[in-house]
Amino acid sequence: MAAPSRLPELALLQVHRLVKRFGALTATDEASLAVHAGETHALIGPNGAGKTTLIHQISGALAPDGGGLFFDGEDVTALSMPQRVRGGLVRSFQITSIYRRFTVLDNVVLAVLARRPAPPSWWRPARADEAAYADAEAMLALVGMTTMADRVAGSLAHGEQRQLEIALALAARPRLLLLDEPMAGMGPDESARMVELLSALKAQRLTLLLVEHDMDAVFRLADRVSVLVSGRVIATGTPDEIRGDAAVRQAYLGDETDLAEEGA
């Protein structure tokens, strides 16, 4: 499929009229959005809007039934998740997945080794790979976990485990990082620390596509916001534009989130 000319040519990620059906249910209904290099782009919508299904299709976990995906101008619609990761399209999951019995540092070392084109030598101890450990330590520094390097991952608090998961994703050297509800299950203090971490990544111009229910965090972090309702993107704009959009407010009627007041 040729890259759609009507979407911005400078976009790093172009999602073009994606369709995903589960029997009679259309979970994504010709959904389109564009994410530009260096921006933090948030995807929001009421419960059941199809956000996670859309992220599954972008990451390669689900194949779409129609439409296309373009990453840096290349058609990646048919590529597997590992192929997309190797190209720089990396995802963290809503449910934390770590090696709980390993140390924090060893978790990240494994992610560093997995990124390499050749498999690690089983005849050489991983701890002898100084470059891998130096790279892993750099990832931990990025997420503020240097002092936790020797802790067993299973002993971390929930928010710290989410930080570790982001370090694992960063070890893949993403050009675009998909974050599926990074603050899910967190208390106020943990959420505040996660916002600080994502702000630091944003300051480094890492491209982020963020799915999050915490509207205060969304409006603090996002450069642009896309709103998904019933599988369709009904609006894209700056946080101020989205807060003032009548169609968006209508979509959220009855929801506990008052978009007009969030971020004030």
UniProtKB/TrEMBL annotation:
A cellular component term, taken from the record's GO annotations: plasma membrane
Keyword tags: ATP-binding, Cell membrane, Membrane, Nucleotide-binding, Transport
The keyword Membrane appears for this protein: yes
Claim: Repeat is one of the keywords in the record: no
Coiled-coil boundaries: none
InterPro entries the record matches: AAA+_ATPase, ABC_AA/LPS_Transport, ABC_transporter-like_ATP-bd, BCA_ABC_TP_C, P-loop_NTPase
UniProt cross-references to PANTHER family, sorted A to Z: ABC TRANSPORTER ATP-BINDING PROTEIN, CONSERVED COMPONENT OF ABC TRANSPORTER FOR NATURAL AMINO ACIDS-RELATED
Protein name as it appears in the record: ABC transporter ATP-binding protein
UniProt source species: Roseateles chitinivorans
